[in-house]
Write a structure and sequence with these properties.
Blueprint: H1 13-18, E1 27-29, H2 37-41, E2 47-50, E3 53-55, E4 59-64, E5 67-72, H3 95-98, H4 104-110, E6 119-122, H5 135-141, H6 145-150, H7 157-166, E7 170-173, E8 180-185, H8 277-281, E9 308-313, E10 346-348, H9 350-358, H10 375-394, H11 430-439, H12 449-456
Parallel strand pairs: 1-3, 5-6, 6-7, 7-9
Antiparallel strand pairs: 2-3, 4-5, 4-10, 8-9
Helix pairs in contact: 9-10
Length: 492
């Protein structure tokens, strides 16, 4: 878990993992930047982290009753976007952070969807979403957001790609520690886009409002914004939420035809003058923008018809913070009326399983990740795989997500405490084994004990915690996290 040793706290997740407690309601979540990343790594395709608590994986589409839910884990760091998932235990000080950075391959899979979803979930806000709500009020409560927003550096570019493609009725996010709402209106090329407005804002003071809690330990170090920003400098501040060199440049947008959205987002510019072609040629291949496919791309999917996405972000789960909102979500992905016979349990999604099989030959753990070949290349492959899913899974009633949680790592031992002398071990999760077997795909997240033992011999010393971070102004310092062991989640 990416957090310095002195800030570690066991929390209560270990009680749900061990079975001492059970979540009273089905809970779905995506991964963020303060998770037990080694546990989530075992469940790349999704799975139960505890009874009644389901992780959506690196990327996923799942069904619950009539609702179709898409999820994208991770936060945005442009310099890791095209990297593979090559972080393996034991993590170094860089890997404990890079493991939760969103990857292009996972985003690419979601961009192949051609039918409507109801709900989208990401940890990071979609890039630019702040301009589709009451941004002035947001910046009054979170003054340090404004510069990043105006330069196009606030939020996740990958999440924006996916939101603009899927256009769900609702998009939920977190990460920036304030409640905020917005509306994105979409229009086809032949239509004009109506103006955007904010959503669910009963009074201007509710947008982005953060109640001060003097007892909070803020791991992300974006200072409480209940009052105007002070200009004092704190050189000892450690910023765990803001990884260094947040970047949205150098990433070309996937080709998605027929889409437009109206927003007042200031356009960020990238200065490229003065960089000679000879100098660019000396850069590693990873710095080169992949060439887009020259084949004609299909039109924007006709089955994605929603033209208005409601965005809602909530605050941290702490006393006197706005972290909870109850709402009714009416499905738009189904044409037939919803009846009492509709099963309210988690079900696999037919189109998503087809996309998963289409990309199953790509090893997500090893570089290089093949370049995006474009929708025109993947579409016939996905259609063929969808026929396979229909014949082998749908007709055989194998679309229900099994409730097959198993404990893989030792449960929390209070006698060991929060500072174990050994690194955590890597495990093959039986849920991932079962999922790969169901789809008939190779499990890249399995390894022999000999291989894991060999890797452990190269283990660096156990990190006793991060060093001192240095920052200026409102929480832009940088710190370095250590590693934790066992199944316990602390602060987020």
């Amino acid at each position: 878990m990416s957090v310095p040793s002195k800030y570690r706290a066991i929390g209560d997740f270990h009680e749900y993992y061990s079975g001492a407690r059970t979540a009273p309601y089905l809970t779905l979540f995506v991964g963020g930047n303060h998770e037990a990343s080694n546990h989530l790594w075992e469940l790349y395709y999704g799975g139960w982290v505890a009874p009644n608590i389901y992780y959506l994986g690196a990327a996923n589409v799942i069904k619950y009753g009539p609702l179709r839910i898409a999820g994208l884990s991770g936060i945005w760091k442009g310099y890791h976007y095209r990297r593979c998932h090559d972080e393996r235990l034991p993590y170094g000080s860089d890997e404990v952070k890079s493991i939760y950075h969103v990857r292009e391959l996972d985003t690419r899979k979601l961009l192949q969807l051609r039918t409507q979803v109801d709900v989208g979930i990401s940890h990071d806000w979609p890039n630019g979403i702040e301009w589709n709500g009451d941004s002035k009020q947001l910046f009054r409560f979170k003054p340090h957001f404004e510069a990043d927003a105006k330069s196009g550096r606030l939020g996740s570019v990958a999440a924006k790609y996916v939101m603009d493609r899927l256009r769900p009725k609702w998009w939920f996010a977190a990460h920036l520690h304030c409640k905020y709402s917005a509306i994105v209106n979409y229009a086809r090329e032949s239509e004009s886009a109506p103006s955007t407005t904010s959503l669910l804002v009963k009074a201007p003071s509710e947008v982005g409002h953060v109640m001060e809690n003097t007892d909070e330990i803020d791991l992300d170090a974006d200072a409480d914004a209940g009052q105007p920003a002070k200009t004092t400098c704190n050189d000892d501040e450690i910023d765990l939420g803001m990884d260094e060199d947040d970047d949205v440049t150098g990433i070309s947008k996937p080709a998605i035809s027929g889409e437009s959205s109206k927003t007042d987002t200031p356009q960020a510019t990238v200065e490229t003058k003065g960089v000679s072609s000879d100098l660019r040629d000396q850069l590693p291949a990873a710095f080169t923008r992949p060439a887009l496919s020259s084949a004609p791309q299909p039109q924007f999917p006709e089955a994605i018809t929603n033209e208005r996405t409601h965005f809602l972000a909530l605050d941290k789960c702490l006393p006197q913070r706005r972290f909870l909102q109850l709402m009714d979500v009416d499905p738009i992905s189904v044409r037939s009326p919803v009846t009492s016979d509709t099963p309210c349990r988690l079900m696999y999604d037919k189109e998503w399983l087809a996309i998963t099989r289409t990309f199953a030959s790509i090893d997500p753990l090893t570089s290089p990740i093949p370049s995006d070949l474009g929708e025109s290349h993947y579409l016939p492959l996905i259609e063929a795989e969808e026929a396979w899913v229909e014949e082998n899974l749908v007709k055989n009633n194998q679309m229900a997500v099994p409730e097959n949680f198993e404990i893989t790592a030792p449960t929390y031992d209070p006698s060991v405490g929060l500072h174990p002398k050994e690194h955590p071990r890597e495990y093959t999760n039986p849920q991932t084994v079962a999922f790969c077997k169901l789809l008939g795909i190779h499990n890249f997240f399995d390894a022999s004990e000999d291989e894991r033992e060999e890797r452990s011999k190269k283990t660096p010393p156990v990190d006793g915690g991060g060093g001192r971070g240095r920052g200026r102004g409102r929480g832009r310092g940088r710190g370095f996290g250590g590693q934790g062991q066992g199944r316990g989640r602390g602060y987020r």
